[in-house]
Design goal:
The chain is an alpha+beta fold. It is built from two helices and four strands. A four-stranded antiparallel β-sheet has the order 1-2-3-4. Strand 2 and strand 3 form a beta hairpin. Helix 1 packs across helix 2. It is globular, with a radius of gyration of 16 Å. The N and C termini lie far apart (51 Å). About 8% of the residues have low confidence.
């Protein structure tokens, strides 16, 4: 039997950073735009990542079924790595 995938809450700051790093056509930028649009309608929603898909929706109680709107899937390309920091005397 397969278990349900984990739904991980994505902090607004992280989503903003990822959208800036990955560009305006990225899944993160589209999820951020969807989140802002829903919040402009006075909805209390958050962004979640489920596998490679971003979804937005309210904080769900453990006993309440989730009702989420799917955002575009995240890219499957490897994440960008930052170059190592230059240390003193290295």
């Amino acid at each position: 039997m397969m278990s349900a995938p984990d739904m991980v809450l994505v902090a607004d700051e992280d989503l903003q950073r990822l959208a800036e790093e990955n560009g305006p056509a990225s899944a993160e930028a589209q999820a951020l735009a969807q989140l802002k649009s829903q919040r402009s309608q006075d909805l209390q929603v958050h962004c979640y990542r489920v596998d490679d898909t971003y979804v937005t929706g309210p904080l769900a109680a453990a006993t309440e079924p989730a009702r989420m709107k799917a955002a575009p899937k995240a890219p499957t390309s490897p994440a960008k790595k930052k170059p190592p920091a230059k240390g003193k005397g290295a």
